[in-house]
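Components:
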Amino acid sequence: MVFRDKVVAAFKEVQDSICAGLEQADGKARFEEELWNREGGGGGRTRILQHGNVIEKGGVNFSAVHGKLPEAVKKAFKVENDDFFATGVSIVMHPSNPFVPIIHMNIRYFEMDDQTRWFGGGIDLTPHYVIDTDARYFHHLLKKTCDTYDASFYPKFKQRADDYFYIEHRAETRGVGGIFYDRLKPDQTGLDFDQLLDFSVAVGDTFLPAYTELIDRNRDAEFSAEEQEWQYLRRSRYAEFNLVYDAGTKFGLETNGRIESILMSLPPTAKWHYNHQTVPGSPEAETLSKLKKGIEWV
Amino acid sequence: MVFRDKVVAAFKEVQDSICAGLEQADGKARFEEELWNREGGGGGRTRILQHGNVIEKGGVNFSAVHGKLPEAVKKAFKVENDDFFATGVSIVMHPSNPFVPIIHMNIRYFEMDDQTRWFGGGIDLTPHYVIDTDARYFHHLLKKTCDTYDASFYPKFKQRADDYFYIEHRAETRGVGGIFYDRLKPDQTGLDFDQLLDFSVAVGDTFLPAYTELIDRNRDAEFSAEEQEWQYLRRSRYAEFNLVYDAGTKFGLETNGRIESILMSLPPTAKWHYNHQTVPGSPEAETLSKLKKGIEWV
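Structure:
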């Protein structure tokens, strides 16, 4: 079996098991699947869940595309060759209860030739209200997954998540971070490509235990209209990050990707208040104080 | 009087008269003013109107800033010198009734030295529902203002608005356009700087008659929950344009501008539905069919 086919099969399985687990956790909504083909080559399975008991809107997308790299991307990647293959699973969940966090996961594999191929990915959490025990639990699970492969992974990838998921113009992180890695190759890691695939799948398999536990803890929490309003404000920050900074979104928009799959990450409802100020000492102010880089959750 | 001071005085007057006119048209809400200073030099008067009879959220901002240009902007502008002065009035109005359009206006003056200075600006309309008679009225007024100065202005600036207010990844215009001009200087126009200032003020003075008429025509139109939902979807397109493409927003975010003034353009509430499809023949489908370049409204 060609390596890329092995990756595709493994990633599809990750998508399938996560969709099954999320439907079970939600208890009401079912994923709707849309199969699509890309003009330049390849395609994907977009799966969207809406109006659930827990999930207001979310997507678990698989894609495997190939073709010629656009000139701009070739330059950015500093590669000569322009045949590429890329496959990945991408998830964003927007829950209806403000005490259940937004979550994002992505695992991806990119290949141009034997020299130019790598894995990338990560999971990160964006609570509307930061709950310390939840953030610690989440980071603990990620560290456990990372440590199985390399003790240096968690601290390195945790820092990269802090740096990456940062809303520069607000001087705040998108949430409490998680892990983020890119261009992971054998030469830097001592792991061969099969082991790196295993690691990526392990990251994928960390999604369900991490998120279903956070759902269980908070799904029945009562909330006020004010707390929901705060959720909508936090969601607008999420939209700002994804539209202004997110590399995956930019890449998708610039390479003429499938818009509805790329922008499924955007929140069902978002609000922008002019110059919103939190009340000192309030849970909202407390949350803001924790949206910064370098907090050690483990 | 130094020329830039004349521009500042004229622009402040435009801001004042527009604020007075909008308060009168709204009949309920009052502008709240925030004066701010920029660390590098200068400052502004941000004026926000919220929860009105007609306007749900809107801003009429004046600023006059000066200082040293950031390296990246210097490169983009291809200038050696790095002392700059910039002043402008920026407006975005998000009305609560989906049949009243969103409107945007901006007039600005930029100066580095005697050789490097210019005016820019424009007005454009983003109806949630395109009403042909309104779009025609709007463009007619803009053409009249332009024609007083130069018969070539309207067709040129109308085309630039079509090209500029374009959501590439959706392959749709932001709205029905209007006029957009930039780097307007005597050498291209045969008008001296005083006349170009007059033209900019005339554009500013076109805002009130244009918008108050569209408010009057539609403010009492009844609307359903579905029509309001459509408004929220159109507003999310507006947010996409401003966060992904708008040059003023980008410039503001990159030069460390006052975030709340820059992002006052974002809608109070916006919604993203996954893969929303309009019903063929519906008013929503009709609107989409008119969000394209090159429609002659006059």
